[in-house]
């Protein structure tokens, strides 16, 4: 039996793994469907982690995290967790997508969040063929070409600047005049001559053919439209939490969540179910920052150590 199962290997999961194993817990497995690192690995620059003054891309920033954890005995199982259920003896069963199961005394859910779809015509049809949610992954395909970016949050503004370094021009489409992005980020983008702001505007349609996107129809609040002849559009319209692991077979949540499906936790990262903890972007009121996700992971791991000492 595992002492601890960590689900998700982003900043929260990796920090939980480090604190659990370095805190002396044996048999700790982090279930991560892909390479550890989480969503920050798709970021082009990471410059707000305290103590790391060098600006790094997300992949380089996260690389040492797993190395550090594995040194203390954390094991990574590359598997997708379908769901978690509680057993009558208060242990948990981890159901993997290949049908296998593992039993653990405690679980920390660190499954984070994933990009939302914007909902315009052609988005699904051309996803991966001109519609993207990752500038570091796909930006290079548009070297010296014009592209569009949709959204007005930190991700859209930061990634628009990253794309402006590669592409000949970036159209930044945002549905209103105010921005969620931090003022300092916005200010830099406004000074970038390669970025043209199209405000009070939405994407009406993305069109193309078998080879991919050929253009984007932008619709303004005043009813006018503009046809951007671009081969690519990057959408950064927010995130949905990944909470499927805490649903039972009937689709009912096994612990308390809020109306957005974020897991309700207390300051120890305990959920409403004893032995089940949550950390990072998946929890209520998450600031959605690497530093806070990592801190949550550390708090959750320390709580798990106390929980196991008291209950098993
Ligand atoms: P995530 O990073 O989302 O990690 C969750 C992990 O769980 C993923 O690796 C996923 O594969 C795995 N997973 C999910 N479900 C399952 C399952 N069922 N089975 C197995 N594995 C599963 N924050 C900053 O502080 N500074 C920044 O500059 C910054 N820039 C950003 C730029 C971009 C483009 C994006 C998208 C985000 C940025 N953020 C930034 C936010 C930051 O990345 C997140 O707040 C942080 O990664 C959250 O960490 P997490 O561990 O909670 O979740
Ligand atoms: P976000 O802050 O939720 O912003 C989403 C943006 O998309 C908003 O401007 C929103 O417009 C717009 N939008 C939403 N749905 C839309 C639709 N259907 N069509 C058109 N536009 C739509 O998302 P995010 O930028 O991905 O950021 C997520 C979190 O990560 C935030 O907490 C952010 O601060 C954090 N993050 C931090 C950093 C950093 O610290 N450097 C970097 C990236 C992300 P409205 O504003 O009108 O609602």
TrEMBL record:
GO terms for molecular function: thioredoxin-disulfide reductase (NADPH) activity. Its cofactor is FAD. Belongs to the class-II pyridine nucleotide-disulfide oxidoreductase family. Its EC number is 1.8.1.9. It comes from Campylobacter geochelonis. Pfam families: Pyr_redox_2. InterPro entries: FAD/NAD-bd_sf, FAD/NAD-binding_dom, Ferredoxin-NADP_redctase_2, Pyr_nucl-diS_OxRdtase_2_AS, Thioredox_Rdtase. It catalyses: [thioredoxin]-dithiol + NADP(+) = [thioredoxin]-disulfide + NADPH + H(+). It comes from the Bacteria. Homodimer. Residues 3-297 form the FAD/NAD(P)-binding domain. The gene is trxB. Keywords: Disulfide bond, FAD, Flavoprotein, NADP, Oxidoreductase, Redox-active center. NCBIfam families: TRX_reduct. GO terms for cellular component: cytoplasm. One of its GO terms (biological process) is removal of superoxide radicals. This is Thioredoxin reductase. Coiled coil: none annotated.
């Amino acid at each position: 039996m595992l002492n601890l199962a960590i689900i998700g290997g982003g900043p929260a999961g990796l920090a939980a793994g480090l604190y659990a194993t370095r805190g002396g817990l044996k048999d700790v497995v982090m279930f991560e469907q892909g390479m550890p690192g989480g969503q920050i690995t798709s970021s082009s620059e990471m410059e707000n982690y305290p103590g790391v003054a060098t600006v790094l891309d997300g992949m380089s920033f996260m690389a040492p995290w797993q190395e550090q954890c594995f040194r203390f005995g954390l094991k990574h199982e590359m598997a997708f967790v379908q769901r978690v259920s509680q057993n009558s003896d208060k242990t948990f069963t981890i159901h993997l997508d290949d049908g296998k199961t593992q039993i653990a005394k405690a679980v920390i859910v660190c499954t984070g969040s994933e990009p939302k779809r914007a909902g315009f015509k052609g988005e699904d049809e051309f996803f991966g063929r001109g519609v993207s949610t990752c500038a570091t992954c796909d930006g290079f395909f548009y070297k010296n070409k014009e592209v569009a970016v949709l959204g007005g949050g930190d991700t859209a503004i930061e990634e628009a600047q990253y794309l402006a370094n590669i592409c000949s021009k970036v159209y930044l489409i945002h549905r209103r005049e105010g921005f969620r992005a931090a003022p300092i980020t916005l200010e830099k983008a406004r000074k970038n001559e390669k970025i043209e702001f199209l405000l009070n505007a939405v994407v009406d349609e993305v069109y193309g053919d078998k080879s991919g996107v050929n253009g984007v129809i932008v619709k303004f609040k005043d009813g006018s439209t503009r046809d951007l002849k671009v081969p690519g559009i990057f959408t950064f319209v927010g995130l949905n939490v990944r909470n499927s692991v805490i649903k039972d077979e009937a689709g009912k949540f096994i612990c308390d969540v809020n109306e957005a499906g974020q897991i309700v936790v207390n300051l120890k990262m305990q959920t409403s179910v004893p032995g089940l903890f949550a950390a990072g972007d998946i929890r209520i009121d998450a600031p959605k920052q690497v530093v806070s996700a990592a801190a949550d992971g550390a708090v959750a791991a320390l709580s798990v150590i106390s929980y196991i000492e008291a209950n098993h």
